[in-house]
Design brief:
Blueprint: E1 4-12, E2 19-23, E3 34-35, E4 38-40, H1 47-59, E5 62-75, E6 80-92, E7 103-106, H2 124-131
Parallel strand pairs: 1-6
Antiparallel strand pairs: 1-4, 2-3, 2-7, 5-6
Length: 136
C-alpha cells in the first residue's frame, strides 16, 4: 500500500499579482520540477499551522493563510498526495530559498507553461480565476 501524505501549499502573490513558485532542489523527490511552496502537515498540526511553519522554514517569511483555494488528491507511482492550496498573505520578510531551491514570481496566466509538479498543475485554473478577481 502506498503512503498517503497530507500537503499544504501557498498561493503567495506579489504587488503585481504574480504568484510565487519554487523549484524542487537536487536530491529531493522530483527534483527540478516547480511547485507552490509549502510542505507536509505534521502530526497534531492543522493545515494552517503547517503552512505557516513550512513557509517560515523554507522561505524565511511570516505569512497569514487567508482561505483555502482548492483541495485535490494525486497518485504518484510511489505515494498518494492530498494537497490543499491556500491563499496566504505575506506578513513580513522577503521569500528566499532556504533549502537551496530557486524561486520565481510568475503571472498566473503563464503558469501553464511552467513545469509544475503533476499534483500542482490542476491548481492553475483555480489560481487564474483567483487572480482575475473571481471570488472563491
Amino acid at each position: 500500500m502506498k503512503p498517503r501524505l497530507r500537503v499544504v501549499a501557498a498561493a503567495l502573490f506579489d504587488a503585481d499579482g504574480r504568484v510565487l513558485i519554487a523549484q524542487r532542489p537536487a536530491g529531493k523527490h522530483m527534483a527540478g520540477w516547480w511547485e507552490f511552496p509549502g510542505g507536509k502537515v505534521g502530526g497534531g498540526e492543522s493545515d494552517r499551522e503547517a503552512l505557516v511553519r513550512e513557509l517560515r522554514e523554507e522561505l524565511g517569511v511570516e505569512t497569514r493563510p487567508d482561505c483555502e483555494v482548492a483541495e485535490l488528491s494525486h497518485e504518484y507511482p510511489d505515494r498518494i498526495v492530498d494537497l490543499v492550496l491556500w491563499r496566504a498573505e505575506l506578513v513580513s520578510g522577503e521569500p528566499r530559498g532556504l533549502d537551496g531551491q530557486a524561486l520565481k514570481w510568475v503571472a498566473c496566466q503563464s503558469l501553464g507553461s511552467e513545469r509544475l509538479l503533476p499534483a500542482d498543475a490542476p491548481l492553475v485554473d483555480a489560481l487564474q480565476l483567483l487572480s482575475s478577481g473571481v471570488p472563491i
